[in-house]
Amino acid sequence: MDYNKAALEMHESHKGKVGIVSKVEVATRDDLSTAYTPGVAEPCRKIKENPDDVYKYTFKGNMVAVVSNGTAVLGLGDIGPEAGLPVMEGKAVLFKEFGGVDAFPICIDAHDAASVIAACKAIAPTFGGINLEDIKSPECFEIEETLERELDIPVFHDDQHGTAIVVTAALINALRVVNKKMEDVHIVLNGPGAAGTAIIKMLMTAGAKDIVAVDQFGTLYKGCNSAEAHKNWLGEVTNPRQIKGGLKEALEGADVFIGVSRPGILTTELCKTMNKDAIVFAMANPTPEIMPDEAKAGGVRVMATGRSDFPNQVNNVLCFPGLFKGALSVRARDINNEMKLAAAYAIADLITDADRSEENIIPGAFDPRVAEAVANAVAKAARETGVARL
């Protein structure tokens, strides 16, 4: 099937993918007077008296803003807010279809961190949460950190943490397959941008102790003097053996390779230098860092990609609908590390011991159990860590 042609036809015929559907009927004078003036004034008065009643009388409690400035859209780069709108519409569709969460796409003409922050703060009263999407690094770090600190609703950058949660879930099961432990394995991550940095943080939260990050200039280590602040931080907190060099040096004896970088950077020969029962997650899209048959030829035992035409697809749709569903259900102020880790284990644990194998380490995108399992785990963690208001 030619997905590009089909997508163009579908988007054109429907004029996009989302619209507004009324929850109430307006067929009579009484309907009109209740949905709008004069009756609507009463919930306005109640909310003025008690601002928390906005969750009782409006859609805020189940509505997420999907916000982007179009500076890092898919693999297309900085294409602008208008060109990014089809992606944000699609994200809103996935929120509803997979998690029952209402979401609205908001593409903003804002090109610096301060402008994005100001826009999100201005619209926050309308929404129960904000999903940041396709915002380039390093601005995305400052934007998320500031909004998390200054808003009382959950803010989540899916390109960072959605990816990190699903990667962690997949790695939990991959390690179960090869009978290794998170705290014992040597992990190499290629591409420490927004997603790569979040993956490293999440794996450290899950217990990983030996991670080496590699960018286009080589390994990150103490004093590597990168031009990017987050990479200097990674150099301080990772690479305990202070390995210097490139991907070749980092991969010698490694148990795990995680790629969020570019096609073809990993070779069969490099895979042969990894440890026995190696795990490779090659997630560059649409062409991964190495194709599965090439990795298997190099001795890799467990392989995952971001593609749906290979086993073990690492897909963010396994995370964000359920995560927001759970956070909204308890009116969480934040989405903290405990909630993220709970989501990862909820996804991983849906694969039973009997079903787990080299080609089955993560649920499929259409597994109906996922969103509810993630939501329940996230809500529980929110209550236990004190960020839930219900």
What tags apply to this protein structure?
six-stranded mixed β-sheet; metal-binding; Malic_enzyme_CS; 10 strands; 390 residues; Malic enzyme-like NAD(P)-binding protein; Malic_NAD-bd; 16 helices; oxidoreductase; four-stranded parallel β-sheet; 12% strand; alpha/beta
Order of helices and strands: HHHHEHEHEHEHEHEEHHEHEHEHHH
Number of separate strands? 10
Percent helix = 40-55%
Largest sheet: 6 strands, mixed
Beta-strand level of the residues, as a percent range?
5-15%
Molecular structure report:
It is a single chain. Helices cover 43% and strands 12% of the residues. It is built from 16 helices and 10 strands. The chain has helices at 3-14, 29-35, 41-49, 54-57, 81-99, 113-123, 139-150, 158-178, 194-205, 229-237, 247-251, 268-272, 292-297, 320-329, 337-348, 370-384, and strands spanning 63-68, 102-107, 129-132, 155-157, 186-190, 210-215, 218-219, 256-259, 278-282, 300-305. The strands form 2 sheets. Strands 7-6-5-8-9-10 form a 6-stranded mixed sheet. A 4-stranded parallel sheet has the order 2-1-3-4. Residues 15-148 form the Malic enzyme N-terminal domain.
